[in-house]
Design a protein that fits this description.
The chain has 19 helices and 13 strands. The protein is an alpha+beta fold. The protein has 3 domains: about 5-180, Formiminotransferase, N-terminal subdomain (Formiminotransferase-cyclodeaminase, Chain B, domain 1, 2-Layer Sandwich); about 185-330, Formiminotransferase, C-terminal subdomain (Alpha-Beta Plaits); about 335-545, Four Helix Bundle (Hemerythrin (Met), subunit A).
Length: about 550
Amino acid sequence: MTRIIECVPNYSEGRDRSVIDAIVAAISSVKEVKVLNVDPGEATNRTVVTFVGPPEAVVEAAFRGSAKAKEKIDMRLHHGAHPRSGSTDVLPLIPISGITLEECAALARKLAERLYKELGIPCYCYEAAAFKPERKNLAVCRAGEYEALPEKMADPERKPDFGGNFDETAARTGASNVGARNFLIAVNFNLNTTSTRRAMAVAFDVREKGRKVGDEWIPGTLKGCKAIGWYIDEYGIAQVSMNITDIDATPLHVAFDEVSRAAAARGLRVTGAEIVGLVPKRVLVEAGRYYLEKQQRSLGISEEEIIKIAVKSMSLDDLKPFDPREKVIEYLMEDPAEMAVKERLVRMSIKGFVAETASESPAPGGGSVSAVMGALGAALATMVANLSSHKRGWDERWKEFSDVAEKGQALVKELTALVDEDTAAFNRIMDVFAMPKGTPEEKAARDKAMEEATFYAASVPLKTMEASLKALPLALEMAQKGNPASASDAGVAALAATAAVRGAAMNVRINAAGLKDGASAAPLLERASQIEAEALALQDKVLEAVGLSK
């Protein structure tokens, strides 16, 4: 899984666009970071910037944004309606995918230390990054706001985690609050009523805080959730408006089902949900998988189809169209131009790919075609598993076939990516030929680059072989246990996967022959021969199982 984190810093400037633009430009100067939103507020005199990317890149961008805020914002002159203590007031790191909250907390502490050591900005660490239990609460760190800093910094118990005296730098920048927290989902649940009072009653039933009865608080049913009921003129309905602050404790689909239950208990119905802002992809994928499991349907379908199930199950398009490409963080991070280059072949139609292969261009060639065959073999095995999972009379076996289909989908994804990667490996060798080779240094650099490119060109088809080999046991299992009506499809899956293995093996051998270092070539050639032998043996078993053996 790609490692992605989000950062949502709040800067103490919401009126001077030139200052805001300078801060955003500093953030954007980090290549791998993508700014998703800039939200300035005039009354609060505060701007919220949302950006995402790989952890190291996001941390660097956060540092550069704080450096620019230090340069442009003087807290001695700042006034606004929102509580604040620094030019970069809050700086939270938020895990999106491939990274834990604890890892984000460690990054936040290092960032806070760097901000003080290199820029002189005092820093409190809050929420998951807090060094002291009471400082998990941002309000404790920011108590008294900017004006209280001289007194707090003189007090050993209240001074920042990183920072000494209230010097000239501290007077200008104030103190930043650097932390780590889980992703917050803002979601509104649509009710078939106009009653705010009834919507509020449902909110009290489910929110963690619950409701006050006499002198006692009765907690609600959902951990990490805050909620209220309100009426929306625009839609003419009441909603339960919720912030899910811990999506691990309460995933979106769990909240949807629980609000639906609580509403039904009061004679109401949830007609859909409205996600406010953005969500990590896993939120919708987990929801789609959850509803598929409830239906006892195979989970081995494409990611796009799983997300579609989530959208329909929670009626996320109840009030207006819901486009995952506009709401999912990972999708918004994709650069269309970059993806068009990276996935040039797989985005073609079958007719276009065949025409491109048949043209005078040397790429795509046998390596890319082998990856396509492998992907098709894995796809056919997956198809048989999916058909078997909902065969009449086999309902109790749905999970058995779903597990096979999930493995197949993973292989389809891997092999599809290898279609373009194989051509990229060929192009890398072509690029080396364009390198200068006049001086001894240039020749040495060119020779080194050629050896590396050639090794890569041999390694990519080996990956195609490895992945295609994994498709064969799936084909065998489906030939032996799957829907008998699809047995021939399992046989074709085996033939395609074996052809992929043998075709990719040719590319491994021809590229490994170009390596000057025999020690590098030997393991590649040995593994290729092993895979080819295993594939042929498995193919024979599949063909025997479907009655197509010699």
